[in-house]
Design goal:
Shape: globular
CATH architecture: Orthogonal Bundle
Largest sheet: none
CATH class: Mainly Alpha
Strand content: under 5%
Number of domains: 1
Structural class: mainly alpha
Bound molecules: tryptophan
Mean pLDDT: 90
Low-confidence stretches: 1-9
Order of helices and strands: HHHHHHHHHHHHHHHHH
Helix content: over 70%
Number of strands: 0
């Protein structure tokens, strides 16, 4: 009889380091990059915001991602189990915060992703051809005015995410990402290339990369840092969970760096794909959250082969959302598998179903529940998003940086990183950032959000 391994009971491992990096990049690259990044960049004036965003990725994002990955691989556990075994006591709550955030974020993420699936379906039926130009602006309003339609696509999307996570670490998560990520990248490069050579290309590049500091204020700074955390999937143990499936030979600093690099490239490429179209057709860069669903589709109808571009674009959006959704689901599922000893099958189906149910009010928030305001004058979907992005993630991010720098200690982290004969050249830099700089920066953002600063 084989000797049971007590520390790693039947947990999955990635089959290769590439698989790990691809899956983590899949988690990071999502609606946050393609839908949110261009529109908040547009609202905050372009270049200066982009520069500050990159600064946040370098100073907070990469150090924190490495921190999460180290905790995960060191313990080979889900977030709750990881903090419990490393320190226990109140720190276990950080793991809980992550599991709750995963549950909450995925509930509404599934609804917005459902819109993307709906648009993909519309595109496949030729709705963005030039003959439909006049009808396109109403498409989004039509979609939001039908509860059933939103519920249906949310269900389709959630079922796909559940299907992938059911397959487990290698056959589900890793394989899906290895297929989706390269396709996504190709489509995006193609669209960005098209953008650059369109008439609005130069104006878009100027807008994105020429910093005009007069249009940039402290609110923009806060948004940039919050967006950096969300986009890199940080602050709730998603990278911790993926790191827990990595083996000792994996070079974690390289992984954290490559994932952040890819994520940033995809965000910038999305900007390069979207803004030239916006400028070519004289639209406003500050169009807000509707940029992808309202502005862009109008443009598809006006360009040659526009419907094909629409199909490509929404396929891209659905892939990106799906690979992120599975990481959110995996965080919660890993908790129930590890700590409650549920089978992966049971955990995935049950948790997936409950997350879907919890997302139903978000799907109904534009109609049936229009009058139901949870926080301020926000509808249900916006309230839950607000709660998660502005409270759960920054708080989680703050606590994880403090934990890594001060409780786990950077010295122990260094040992973990160097286990598989990996040399950690940037240790002094990382040590300084994760211990002193990242916590202070995240704390400032958080205190500002809760109104204490
Ligand atoms: N990073 C993803 C995006 O950009 C969303 C996401 C997936 C996420 N997992 C996460 C956000 C964990 C925060 C935490 O769309």
């Amino acid at each position: 009889m084989p000797i049971p391994q007590r520390s790693k009971p039947q947990r999955g491992l990635w089959s290769s380091r590439l698989g790990f990096v691809m899956a983590s990049a899949g988690s990071a690259v999502g609606l946050g990059n393609i839908w949110k990044f261009p529109y908040i960049t547009g609202m905050h004036g372009g270049g200066a915001f982009v520069l500050f965003y990159i600064f946040c990725i370098l100073v907070v994002g990469i150090p924190l991602m490495l921190g999460e990955m180290v905790i995960g691989r060191h313990t080979h556990k889900n977030p709750v189990g990881a903090f419990k075994s490393l320190k226990g006591g109140a720190w276990t709550a950080v793991g809980w915060l992550g599991v709750i955030a995963g549950f909450v974020i995925l509930s509404y993420y599934g609804v917005v992703a459902g819109w993307a699936v709906d648009y993909l379906w519309l595109a496949l039926r030729g709705a963005f051809g030039s003959q439909h130009a006049s009808k396109v602006p109403e498409l989004f309003t039509e979609l939001l005015s039908s509860d059933l339609r939103q519920l249906f696509w949310q269900a389709v999307f959630m079922a796909s995410a559940i299907g992938i996570v059911l397959g487990g670490v290698r056959k589900g998560l890793e394989r899906a990402n290895k297929i989706m990520m390269p396709i996504l990248f190709l489509i995006l490069v193609f669209l960005a290339g098209y953008g650059i050579f369109s008439p609005g290309g130069p104006a878009a590049l100027h807008f994105l990369f020429y910093p005009d500091w007069s249009k940039f204020d402290s609110r923009g700074m806060l948004e940039a840092l919050g967006q950096a955390l969300f986009s890199l999937s940080l602050g709730m143990g998603a990278m911790l969970t993926y790191g827990s499936y990595a083996d000792e030979k994996t070079n974690l600093p390289t992984a954290a760096f490559s994932v952040s690099f890819m994520d940033t490239c995809v965000a910038l490429l999305s900007g390069i794909a979207i803004f030239p179209i916006v400028f070519t057709y004289g639209m406003l860069p500050a169009g807000g959250p509707g940029l992808v669903f309202k502005t862009l589709p109008i443009v598809f109808t006006r360009m040659p082969a526009g419907n094909m571009f629409a199909v490509l674009f929404f396929l891209l959006l659905v892939f990106a959302a799906l690979s992120s959704a599975i990481s959110l689901l995996e965080v919660v599922v890993s908790y129930y598998c590890d700590e409650q000893k549920w089978s992966r099958h049971k955990a995935t189906l049950l948790i997936g179903f409950f997350i879907f149910l919890f997302g139903v009010p978000s799907a109904l928030s534009n109609n049936l529940l229009k009058e139901f305001h949870l926080i301020g004058d926000r509808n249900f979907l916006d309230s839950v998003d607000f709660l998660a992005s502005n409270y759960l993630l920054p708080l989680g991010g703050l606590l994880i940086t403090v934990f890594t720098g001060w409780v786990l200690t950077t010295r122990l982290a260094k040992e973990e990183i160097e286990k598989g004969a990996v040399r950690f050249h940037f240790y002094p830099v990382w040590h300084f950032l994760i211990k002193y700089i990242s916590p202070v920066l995240v704390a400032i953002v958080f205190l500002h959000t809760v109104g204490l600063l």
